[in-house]
Design goal:
This protein is mainly α. The chain has 10 helices and 2 strands; from the N terminus they run ααααααααββαα. It is globular and about 50 Å long.
Length: 265
Amino acid sequence: MLTWTMLLFPLLGAVAGVLAGLLGIGGGLVLVTALVWLLPLYGVPQDAAMHTALATALASIILTGLSSARAHHRRGSVLWRTVAWMVPGVMLGGWIGSWLAVLLDGDVLRYCVIAYCGVVGTQLLLSRTPPPGGDAVVPTGIGLSGAGVGIGALSSIVGIGGGGMTVPLLVWRGVSPVRAVGTSSACGVFVALAAAAGYALQAPADVLPGVSWGYVYLPGAIGIALASVLAAPYGTRLAHAISGAALKRVFAVFLYCIGASLLFL
C-alpha cells in the first residue's frame, strides 16, 4: 500500500539537492515540511513526527552538502580558510541544539522554524548587496567560531545546514553572495553531522518503529540523500548564472513560502 510513497523520498532529495547548490542549504526546510506529513504513513507516532522530520532532514543533508560543496569548490567558490574557522563552532552548536530540541515539544519546534523563516527572509530582503570586489574577501578569526556555535545550535533546532544564517553573515562580512553560498554548503556538512548524531544518540530508547537510529528514519534519509547528490550540481550552475541581488530575493521568497506552509500543519 505504501510502495508508491517510497518514490517521494528520492523526489524530495532532488528538490533538496537543487536548493543546496542554489541557496547554500540542504533543502532542509522543504524536507522538514514534507516529512512531517509523510512520516506518520510509516508508523512514526504523531508526537514524534516533528523531531523525526528534523533529524531525518539533517542526516540527508550530510551527503547533499558534500555534493554541493564539491560542485562549488570546482568553481572556486568555497572559502576553505573561512570554513576551517567556523567548523569547531558549528559542530559544538549542532550537538547542543539537538540536545535542546529533544527536550522540546514538537509544536514548539514548528513555531521555531516559522519564526526563523520570517526573520531571515526579511533580513535578506532588507540587506544591501555588497559592492564589486567581494570575491577577494576571506573572513577569518575567532569571531566566526563563536558565531558558528549559534548557527549550529539554531540550525539543529530548525533542521537545516545553516545556510540561512551563514550566507547573510558572510555577505555582511563582504563576501560575494555566490561565494557565501559555496562556503555555506561546506559548513553545512559539519552542522548536519553533529546535529544528526545528536538526534540519533540523545533520543529516547525505541522512539521509532522499523529501521531507524534514534530520531533518524533511515529509509527516508538514505533515499533523500542519494537523489540529492545527483541534483546538487544543477543548483550550483543556477547559482553561478544568477546575480547576487536576484539570488538573495530567491532565497527570501523561498523562506517566506516555507514558513507559511508550516502554519497549516
